Amino acid sequence: MKKNSLPGMCIGLLVGCSGLTVVQADDCSAIRAQYQCQDDARYPLHLSFDDGPALQTPELVQVLQREHIPATFFVLAGKVDCERILTEQCLPRSPTSDGSDCEAYQQCRQRRDVLADTRKAGFEIGSHSYLHLHYTQVPPEQARADFVRARQLLEPYLTTSPPLFRLPFGDGWFNHKENNGQVLKMLEQTGFTHIDWQFSAFDWNTDNQQGDKILSNVLEQVCQRRQGGVVLFHDGVPEQMNEGRLFTIRNMARWIPAMRCVVDFKPLSFFVKNLAEK
Questions:
Q1: Burial of 75 (0-12, 13-18, 19+ CB in 10 A)
Q2: Which of 273, 223, 248 is nearest to 28 (CA)?
């Protein structure tokens, strides 16, 4: 994309950019100065999104496709366990209904379609387990069962061999020394490759969901560390089956030009070697 393809766009675009520092998206020198980046330095960055699928995920997928930006989606298998939802929330209905007309079941089928379309669009798909739990704090047998169940449910959508996995909260990865790596060992035993992150957008925090705090979180970390890596965003909300992380989804398009001044978007294989497609 040409640097001048979005003339006049504000990084902090709200109503009239009121109350925000206004910088042109194509003025990369100003952006680098704002975040104290090295002159002309661009760092490799891979976008990753957790906690989906959400019914609004296609909005994000369209933006990433249009901008030719690779990304990985780590999804909660419980959100696409439609048979369980049918049994627990929709049955018994009536002697003349099999429950498939139940709204919860139909919404689950929609989420499955979103996941299938995301894969078809060329994005990497990984597991975020079955439930969004602190897996160092649950019995090992439950953790193992969730990992196995997630792999079974997500098998049609997973894109790599071995399949990718990201632990909810990073619990079991960032504190692996405290738990002797038991959670990571279970993942390896169930055939997964764990994918961590080097930067967090902290977009789950509602305090950041205004103006360009989320964009600043990313660029400040990248520029201060002067290195690239995988960055953690969210397209879903763990407690919500359908509604996604709307602030991130609806603002990603206007953050991308500023990020491009500092980063070079890369596929996950740039950071994870020997990553084979299924």
A1: buried
A2: 223
pLDDT tens per residue across span 152-206: 999 999 999 999 999 999 999 999 999 889 999 999 999 999 999 999 999 999 9
Query: What domains lie within the chain, and their CATH numbers?
Result: 25-277 (3.20.20.370)
Virtual torsion, Cα 166, 167, 172, 173, nearest 10 deg: 30
Residue 40, sorted as left (phi over 0), alpha (psi -120 to 50) or beta, turns out to be left
Annotate 244-266 with b (16+ C-beta within 10 A) or e (fewer). bbebbbebbbbbbbbbbbbbebb
> What distances in angstroms separate CA 47 from CA 37, 84, 116, 223, one per listed residue?
19, 31, 19, 16
Instruction: Return the structure tokens found at 81.
Output: 């366990």
| CA separation, residue 4 to residues 108, 113, 222, 250 (Å) | 41, 36, 23, 22
Burial string for 131-149 (b: 16+ CB within 10 Å, else e) reads bbbebbebeeeebbebbeb
Which residue type is seen at 34?
A: Q
Q: Give Cα separations from 127 to 33, 67, 81, 84, 234 (angstroms).
A: 38, 25, 13, 18, 14
Quick one: pLDDT at residue 41? 87
**Residue 259 — φ and ψ, nearest 5°?**
-60, -35
Q: pTM (2 decimals)?
A: 0.89
Q: How far apart are CA 45 and CA 140, in angstroms?
A: 34
Q: How many CB atoms lie within 10 A of CB 32?
A: 19
**Two structure tokens written together for 125:** 């798909």
36-47 confidence digits (pLDDT tens): 998 888 999 999
**Which residue, chain included where needed, has tokens 């901008």?**
67
pLDDT band at 96 (very low <50, low <70, confident <90, very high): low
